[in-house]
């Protein structure tokens, strides 16, 4: 023991255990992050794959058909298992999933003619096509019914596009014009301008007549959509009729090859990214939430980055160092640790009720008591998150400015540059990599925040985007959807959480991808600047 003691002391003095400890902690953190991302990718990336339908004929009871989701041992019965099927047909069965004991299964099969119907409401329907009807007239039955159904789906899709174009184009424009006339009428009544009121009434009546004509056209198109029905035979003896207009997509997974499944997978993935939500956000796409998230992050960055950089420049380069500046730095560091919900309450009181209410009183008095800016919107949510993230930008910018060597400042001043020229041409370019690090951290934190948004403008479903083709194009007073809130809403507020779980993983995967792309962009720019100003000390 006497001879080994110096060796043990040297071992501890070299710090090898601490190196191993920090390396092990880093490896553990990376493994946990990789595991979390792997779980999200595993459950999120396979949601849109057209899985085969399995038909189970039971020893006692009607057959069951659906997608095999899981297989588990039966509790308390060693060696016995049960399988979980996503049976769909929620309107018929009252549930999306069903557990079946393997001992009760007499036969398994994958019938070739089994069809998956993705519907606008009630989720998927699994069954077999029995017949097609046009109103009450039998249109097709038996051979060729599948091809006719595909043609009808194409026709219904074309009609749906015409309806959507009419609603979002001419009808939307008319609704806005009628609403503008309503506000003008309130102003004219306040000014007691009777002559203009009469002209206003004539104009509004003309718009209403045009509105009724367009509504009649919409009703005709919808009646054309409602003409066709498909009769579906479920796994048991029950049959149900479904409007072709209520079917989003129909495919026979058991007859599809790999190429056809890949094509359907890509089609469903594109619908998820570019489509609108349906069925209480548990089906369809998430484009409004995606658009709202990206636009909010951009507005937040435009507000937080310039303000944070300017504040850090003043504190580091211009302010006289003393007690007051130290107190300001302490306050900034403390703000970085304040819970986000506190910023949300401040944003609600200061931005929404304070500034927004004042704007309504000054510029939108005709619309009161209906608030315009005096309620939650994407502008106030973005400014609230800007306040949340600006301490991170200030701290990172100050540290970057402090890292610029004093010799570079003195050299610029010695060559006759003013202080502003020295900061603009020497200090700021050299500190840009560190400033971008702060921007990366601020963007990543702001993009994932949900609590402040819930009280400053985010909603479950926003009928209109904050950006459209109608003046003033940027409607910053509108409420918006957000991917983080979408995950919370679908995962915890959905009436059918089990069926909505795949949407949670897929949305989380998309949110991670957006944050990763934003961060990678900033990292690439930072590395280019770092190589350009390699003489600076970072």
Order of helices and strands: HHEEEHEEEEEHHEEEHEEHHHHHHHH
Note the main sheet: 6 strands, antiparallel
Shape, please?
Answer: flat
CATH-level-2 architecture of the largest domain: Orthogonal Bundle
| Total strand segments | 13
Terminal CA distance: 47 Å
Helix content: 55-70%
What topology does this entry show?
Blueprint: H1 4-13, H2 16-45, E1 54-58, E2 64-73, E3 81-86, H3 90-93, E4 97-101, E5 105-109, E6 115-119, E7 124-134, E8 137-141, H4 145-191, H5 194-225, E9 228-233, E10 239-243, E11 247-251, H6 258-274, E12 277-278, E13 283-284, H7 287-318, H8 323-335, H9 340-363, H10 378-403, H11 406-414, H12 419-448, H13 483-492, H14 497-532
Antiparallel strand pairs: 1-2, 1-5, 2-3, 3-4, 6-7, 6-11, 7-8, 7-9, 9-10, 12-13
Structure commentary:
With 538 residues, this protein is α+β, with helices and mostly antiparallel strands. It has three domains: 47-133 and 231-268, no CATH class; 136-226; 287-532, MetI-like (MetI-like fold, Orthogonal Bundle), CATH 1.10.3720. It has 14 helices and 13 strands. The strands form three sheets. Strands 6, 7, 8, 9, 10 and 11 form a six-stranded antiparallel sheet that branches. The protein has a five-stranded antiparallel sheet with strand order 4-3-2-1-5, with no helix packed on it. β2 and β3 (81-86) form a beta hairpin. α13 (483-492) packs antiparallel against α14. The longest helix is centred in the first third of the chain and has 47 residues, at 145-191. It starts with a helix and ends in a 6-residue tail after the last helix. The mean pLDDT is 85.
């Amino acid at each position: 023991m006497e001879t080994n003691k110096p060796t043990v002391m040297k071992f501890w003095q070299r710090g090898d255990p601490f190196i191993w400890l920090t390396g092990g902690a880093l490896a553990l953190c990376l493994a946990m992050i990789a595991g979390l991302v792997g779980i999200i990718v595993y459950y999120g990336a396979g949601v849109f794959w057209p899985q085969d339908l399995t038909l189970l004929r039971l020893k006692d009871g009607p057959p069951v058909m659906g997608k095999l989701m899981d297989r588990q041992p039966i509790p308390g019965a060693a060696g016995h298992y049960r399988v979980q099927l996503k049976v769909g047909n929620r309107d018929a069965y009252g549930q999306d999933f069903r557990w079946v004991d393997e001992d009760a299964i007499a036969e398994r099969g994958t019938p070739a003619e089994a069809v998956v119907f993705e519907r606008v409401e009630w989720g998927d329907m699994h069954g077999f096509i029995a017949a097609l009807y046009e109103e009450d007239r039998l249109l097709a039955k038996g051979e060729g019914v599948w091809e006719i159904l595909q043609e009808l789906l194409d026709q219904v899709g074309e009609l749906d596009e015409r309806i959507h174009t009419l609603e979002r184009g001419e009808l939307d424009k008319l609704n806005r014009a009628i609403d503008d006339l309503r506000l003008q009428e309130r102003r004219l009544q306040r000014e007691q301008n009777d002559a203009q009121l009469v002209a206003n009434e004539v104009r509004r009546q003309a718009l209403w007549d045009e509105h009724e004509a367009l509504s009649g056209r919409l009703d005709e198109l919808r009646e054309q959509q409602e003409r066709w029905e498909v009769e579906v035979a479920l796994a048991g003896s029950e049959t149900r009729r479904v409007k072709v207009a209520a079917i989003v997509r129909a495919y026979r997974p058991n007859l599809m090859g790999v190429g056809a499944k890949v094509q359907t997978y890509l089609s469903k993935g594109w619908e998820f990214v570019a489509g609108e939500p349906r069925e209480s956000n548990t089906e369809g796409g998430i484009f409004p939430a995606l658009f709202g998230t990206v636009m909010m992050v951009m507005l937040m960055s435009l507000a937080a980055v310039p303000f944070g950089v300017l504040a850090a420049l003043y504190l580091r380069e211009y302010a006289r160092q003393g007690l007051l500046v130290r107190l300001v730095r302490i306050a900034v560091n403390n703000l970085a640790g304040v819970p986000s919900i506190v910023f949300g309450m401040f944003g609600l009181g200061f931005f929404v009720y304070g500034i927004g209410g004042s704007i309504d009183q000054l510029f939108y008095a005709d619309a009161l008591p209906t608030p315009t800016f005096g309620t939650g919107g994407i502008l106030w949510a973005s400014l609230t998150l800007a306040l949340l993230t600006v301490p991170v930008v200030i701290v990172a910018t100050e540290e970057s400015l402090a890292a610029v060597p004093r010799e570079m400042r003195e050299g610029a001043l010695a060559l006759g540059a003013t202080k502003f020229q020295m900061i603009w041409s020497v200090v700021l370019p050299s500190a840009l990599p560190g400033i971008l690090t702060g921007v990366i951290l601020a963007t990543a934190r702001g993009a994932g925040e949900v609590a402040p948004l819930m009280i400053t403008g985010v909603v479950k479903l926003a009928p209109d985007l904050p950006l459209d083709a109608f003046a003033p194009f940027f409607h910053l007073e509108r409420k918006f959807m957000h991917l983080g809130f979408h995950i919370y809403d679908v995962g915890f507020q959905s009436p059918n959480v089990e069926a909505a779980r795949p949407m949670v993983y897929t949305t989380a995967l998309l949110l991670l991808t957006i944050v990763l792309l934003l961060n990678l962009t900033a990292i690439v720019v930072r590395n280019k600047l770092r190589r350009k100003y390699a003489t600076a000390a970072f």
